[in-house]
Design goal:
Layout: E1 6-12, H1 19-27, E2 34-41, H2 47-57, E3 61-66, H3 71-81, E4 86-91, E5 95-96, H4 100-111, E6 115-124, E7 127-129, E8 136-140, H5 141-150, E9 164-167, H6 168-171, H7 184-194, E10 197-209, H8 221-242, H9 246-269, H10 273-286, H11 288-294, H12 302-313, H13 315-335
Parallel strand pairs: 1-2, 1-4, 2-3, 6-10
Antiparallel strand pairs: 4-9, 5-10, 6-7, 6-9, 8-10
Helix pairs in contact: 5-9, 7-8, 8-9, 9-10, 12-13
Length: 336
């Protein structure tokens, strides 16, 4: 059987220390039928020149130089020229294992799946986190969406596009929202709603650098959550509703409100407490009617019902109880 072309899109912006490692890992893939699209998003360091040097060495590489527009804009530029039957994404400061795209491609072809998802290693300053189980499973659309929204400790099916391989026809008209972070949330949500089958590989083929200085994820966390993440989660809930997935929409809302409780604690522990934490309280109270409806569902944990009621009535008391629990109860549980 003739192998199909895979287009790999790499957004590049001021990562001269890391981009060579990323490109080398793609060139070292055991699956060789690749179109590698490097999108230099207006870099002011030597990143663009490095991309051109690699292009001169390998005919599979295409380079786009464009004014800075952000990660979404760079990925969209790559999508506009991608000609492969499959599409993958790699962030320029990360790198991938040699068998990543061969494994994901073969899984899609064997299982007749439109999306493959792999596990990833978290590369931190203190070490590498890898929870691979080294197995694979084929999932229907309904099964994959349930895991994607509700989570399942057996799988790591998350928003990030870089842990996935998509058939081009599935995402040919989907684009990333320009000018916003957390852009993967709706791109992945829309793709999942279109697919019929997904294959999950519980092998960490992707190396995700978690705490690089200057990365988007490490800057202005409070603003990113309020301006990008929370609106995207709300958009996701509405999108499921518009797709006729009312039950999934309610589950997404439940997990969204649980997430807001975590954000509240995070903001209370950080700077600008009144601004960020106060906004979480405002949004939860504004959604009180919806919360009451959602939290009557049978899948809502009893503990979550208690937590949301306490948060809505006495947010600062909720914070104090959580901190007390973390300080005294969790250590006892860990010892036992």
């Amino acid at each position: 059987m003739e192998e199909k072309l895979i287009s790999i899109i790499v957004a590049v912006y001021n990562i001269e220390k890391y981009i060579a490692r990323c490109i080398d890992s793609i060139l070292s893939q055991t699956y060789s039928k690749l179109e590698i699209i490097l999108v230099d998003d207006g870099s002011t360091d030597s990143s663009g020149r490095i991309c051109d040097d690699y292009k001169a060495r390998d005919g599979r590489i295409r380079v786009i130089h464009k004014p800075n527009g952000g990660l979404s804009d760079a990925r969209n530029a790559g999508l506009e020229i991608a000609s492969g039957e499959y599409i993958g994404f790699v962030d320029g400061d990360d790198w991938i294992e040699a068998d990543m795209y061969r494994a994901m491609y073969q899984a899609c072809e064997t299982e007749e799946a439109e999306i493959a998802v792999c596990r990833y290693k978290q590369i931190t300053k203190s070490g590498v986190i890898d929870a691979s189980a080294h197995n694979s499973v084929s999932l229907s659309k309904a099964e994959a969406l349930e895991i994607y929204v509700c989570g399942d400790e057996r799988y790591l099916i998350y928003n990030s596009v870089w842990s996935k391989l998509f058939t081009h026809r599935l995402i040919q008209d989907i684009r990333f929202p320009v000018g916003r972070n957390s852009e993967d949330i709706m791109f992945t949500t829309k793709a999942f709603c279109r697919m019929k089958r997904l294959v999950y590989l519980d092998i960490a083929y992707y190396n995700y650098v978690l705490d690089r200085e200057g990365s988007i994820m490490n800057e202005k966390a409070g603003e990113r959550r309020l301006k990008d993440e929370i609106p995207f989660w709300r958009e996701q809930i509405a999108y499921f509703q518009s797709e006729g997935l009312a039950g999934l929409s309610d589950k997404a809302a439940y997990h969204f409100y649980r997430r807001l409780l975590f954000y509240y604690i995070e903001f209370m522990d950080g700077e600008q407490t009144e601004t960020f934490a106060g906004e979480i309280v405002r949004q939860l109270r504004q959604d009180r009617k919806c919360i009451r409806r959602i939290y009557q569902k049978p899948y809502v944990a009893v503990g979550d019902r208690v937590r949301i009621r306490l948060m809505l009535a006495w947010p600062r008391l909720y914070y104090q109880i959580v901190k007390w629990y973390d300080r005294y109860i969790i250590p006892i549980r860990n010892r036992s």
